[in-house]
Each structure stands twice: as C-alpha cells, then as structure tokens.
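Thread: Newbie trying to understand structure tokens

Hi all, I'm a second-year student working on a class project, and my supervisor (Dr. K.) asked me to get a predicted structure for one chain before our next meeting. I've only ever worked with sequences, so writing a 3D structure as a token string is new to me. If someone could post the tokens and maybe explain what I'm looking at, I'd be very grateful. Here's the chain:
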Amino acid sequence: MRKRDIESFKRILTDQQQRITGNADRTLRENMVLDTDDLPDEMDLATAEYNQGLVFRLRDRERYLLSKVNKALKKIEKGDFGICEECEEPIALPRLKARPVTTLCIRCKEEQERREKMYV
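---
Reply by user tm_fold:
Sure, no problem. This is what the structure looks like when written as tokens:
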C-alpha cells in the first residue's frame, strides 16, 4: 500500500477516534445524572430514563468501535495495516475505504460468516 494511502487511513482513523472520545466526554458531562426536580411527572422521568439508556447503549457500541480504531492505528504504526489476519494477503483498498477497521479480506470475512451461520 502506498504511503499516501496509509496517511489517509491514519487521518480517517484519528478523526474517528477523536469524535468517539468527544462523544464519550460529552455524555459524561451531560447525561450522567437525571435531576428528578426538572421532571414534573412519572412519564417525563420514564422518557428521560429511556433516552439516557439509549445514549449509554450508543456509547457502549462506540467504545467497542474505539477499540477497533485503536487496533487499526497500532497496525499502522507496526506496518501491518491492510493485511488480512487470516490469510495474510493484502485487503483490497475499496474494502478498507468502506471499513478502515477491518481485519479480514472479503474472502476470509465471508468464510467467517459462513462458519458462524453453521452454529446459529
């Protein structure tokens, strides 16, 4: 992979990393506490608790994505970004552009999904 491509992916991943951590910081500042004095009835309180739960679930999903982003950035630093972890072949550039955190080429990913279907 060309150095220009690697730098582009590094920039994309770093931006994503900053966005996710910014969302987490904002959630900590704004969504951690429900002030029941601001919610006059039980329906308002229930709605606020439901919305807070949604925000926390979204942040949990982002936390998982952040671990993948961090792993991809480490791979860039080590020099093995864009290499399939299964077959060790290069991952196609269009696949990386669509999903920069991917660790498998399309062939290995499809095989993984087939194996998972057998156990469901």
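A couple of things are worth pointing out once you decode it. Residues 82-120 form one domain. The CA atoms of residues 46 and 97 lie 41 Å apart. Feel free to ask follow-ups in this thread.
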